Amino acid sequence: MRPMRRMVQGGARSVAASVRKHKPDYQILLYMWLIMMIGLVIIYAIGPQRANVLNNAYGTDYYDSTYFFIKQTVSLAVALLAFALATVTPYQLLLKHAGKILGFGFAACVLLFLFGNVVHIDSIAQCSLGACRWFTLGPLGSLQPAEFVKFGLLLFAAGFLGARATQGLINDRDKTLIPLGVIVAIALVFIIGIQKDMGTGIAVIAILAAMLLMAGLKYRVWLALGGIMVLVGIAFILIAPHRLERVTTFFSGDSSNVDDAGAYHIAHAKIAIGSGGLTGVGIGNSVQATGYLPEAINDSVFAIMGETFGFVGLVGILGLFTALLMRLLKVSDHLVDIRLKLIVAGVFGWLASHVVLNVGAMIGIIPLTGITLPLLSFGGTSMVFIAAALGLSFQLSRYTAFGSKLESSSDNARQQPAWAARRSTRGRTGSKP
Amino acid sequence: MQLAFQKGSRSRVLGGLLLIMMAIFVVRLFYLQIVMHDDYVAQAMQEQVKPLTIPAKRGLIYAMDGDKPIQLVMNQTVYTLFVDPATVTKPEQVLETIRKIAGGNLRPNLDKLIAKKDTRYQILGTKLTRQQAEMIKKEELKGVGFQEVSQRVYPEGGLAAQTLGFVNAEGKGQYGVEEALHDRLVGTDGLLKSVTDISGVPLTIGSGNINRPAKDGENVVLTIDRNVQAKAERALAEGLKNTGAKEGSVIVMDPQNGHVMAMANLPSYRPAEFTKVTDAAAFNNATVGVPYEAGSVIKTLTVATGLDQRAIRPDSTYVNTDKIKVGDREIGNATKGQTGTITMQKALDYSLNTGMVTIAQRLGDGTINQQARNTMYEYFHDRFGLGEPTGIELLGEARGNVTKSDQPGAAVQYATMSFGQGMNVTMTQVISAFCSAINGGTYYRPTVVAGTLASDKTTFSPTNPDVLRKNVISQEASSQLRSMVHEAREKFHGAKDKAGYEVGGKTGTSQTLKDGRYVDEQTIGSYLGYGAGGDGTPRYVIMVQVSGKDMNLEGGKHAMPVFTDISNWMIDYLKLQPKG
Hints:
The structure holds 2 protein chains of 2 kinds. By secondary structure, chain A is mainly alpha-helical.
């Protein structure tokens, strides 16, 4: 940790500018594409059943059997567009306007709060059980302001923490931690407090936790902040009955009463996964998707994939996510500009927290938070923003430095980092001469 | 993937955390999907697979119409209306609607039934038609449901009621062949076990689906000929009307195969209205269920025994003094005055008890000794099947009782048995025995089942006659007996029969036990006889029995006219040829 701080202090920014732009890390795009395609296959398979369930429930024939497949295809197209856009939009521009994006996210949250919780205009604010999370955009679908907040916060915190790290003030309580704490607190009040979206809230925390760690925050402080977050989390759980229920459901284990909606959800997720066995029941043969498992197409898609593709399939999917995440981590690791390093670390935290929270809940080792499985779950906003975040990471992967470059970049550090010397001797790391 | 992280980099911490998390996930997935797989499959099956019972159709019952089967009962689907009081939200609306549509089918105290909120099932109405059920369904009343119930319909009304029996509200056969052949008629319900979606709609996906179609019950064709049955019922009713007798039974049997062509009992009932019957006795088939002392009709069997044992011939003589001593008891004749040396034919003609006792004595050493009794028991019980159930496919067949030959005081009892007293037998036992005695000696198990009709309702598979015993008496003895019985009828009643046809018969008048004592003022009149075709083959056997409380009914006077009526009709119906 110590050498890193020195290095950062030594003026990484100038080095970053000196790193020549090179080919991006296409593996990021590859893994993302593979995961998206698997998601499309599963939506194609269970879409008709989902449509059938909804038509039965509402007594309509509104949902065509290809409804979900077509919508998901459109979402994918939009997500790829977002990816491309984030790839070509210069990161400098994004960093420069990070505050505005975050501000826009906050403003949207305020607006949503006004429409949803104050004047109750259902045609604009989409609410369920008192939690208003989406704007209705008519034929364009819906928009979740929390995703803007996430994205804005990612950029803003990268700029802010990057600057503080450069100044060597990353552990400074008054100049770094408290201002950041205030912004995060505002975000959480909106997301968890008003929109009652624990999952997204945790994702925000995870984004910042990954960034703070990479920025060189002392482990002691990092763990202390984590402890505070846990306490705050417990407080949030205790004040919201539905969260308390989920947690009690979780801790009461398999023997819990299935009358309770949360317990029912988890029990059926486990039935779906467990009945998949080694190789699954095959595409189109999922029975749990015919109405037994709630949110089969959205939050529970992992369980349906477990039923469909079995252990082999799920391990493969987890493998793809792991590969993508490790790729992000590697990019972050090799970025010289601390701000860029932090952006990719944040994206890692974002993606990882979604995967861990969703999968963990489905297999019954983490309480249910109602969070999507990125790139796989049906639903536009989440997919578009994660694709944009990945697109940004893809863009930044062009600025990584390896071996000698890193070595030379840190030559003004008073203490030569041991790794820099050794790295140069390794060949197959995609290093650029 | 190569973990190309820089040494000391915090990426290693994050990467490590991620990999640990993923490892935990994989272990957990291994536990859920591999270790616990069977358990979760079982859980999934339990909620996904819903068994649906496919009710089997109850087999139909056919009678014969000449040589073709004709339907005697039909099935009709009716609906039972029930409510789940716990989920009914508008009881007044429910009651108003169902009263309007199905007022006549409802149970009393509906408002109380529907108010039983702590119950989940209350039947409000029964036997609603499909139309009524559809009309009520259209109202979409909450908590109201229907159950399909199959109900028997009887196009022939009360025809062969006791032979048929009926089907109760629970679908169980009661009395008659409906109960006796219930297992064959009821079939096996099918089972549809299918993976369904959450609303119970069967899906085509999933393994282990069971689709076992319902096996409908057999269509049973009775030996009952609807025309003969109708004639027998008419003749019996008329006979009762003419004589004033209260109860009566008739069996018409084909002696060549044991087929019961008609089996009538009065008073009777209509199976469709079984709920209105107040005295359950109307359900009973007296011809199989009520043993009695058959009386003089048994004399035909005593003569048959004597002939077969060559103890007598038709022209054997004995000295009739109108009384005969057996042990310390003196037995007399009902008909007096035919004294002197007379033939056995005459003893049968006049139904003389002394003649029958003489035959019994001649079976032994001139007294009814052990040998005589053993022979009689062998014939009556072992060969003619008296005192044992015949095995006819009807419920509640009585055994009756024939005393064993080695009992104390058996000599006197066996003397009375020779003319039909001192033993209890059913009409079915007697007519079956008589059939075997006149048909050449073959004892067929009496039967009401002629065969089955395939589900196409045209392919008839007849059941082979069930020969229980052959040569119960010799061919020669049988033809001698037939001519004796024919002569016995012809002598006094020949003029009543269609000219040129061989008809034989024997009267019977049995005393009944009243307060443990034989009395003369309450007697049962019976008649047992046959008709033969031109070649001398017996083609039908008819047994008639009439009775009434405190009524003195005689075979010749009260039962025989019914026999004559049916017999003459049978000659036409069977298109018998006159004697050549």
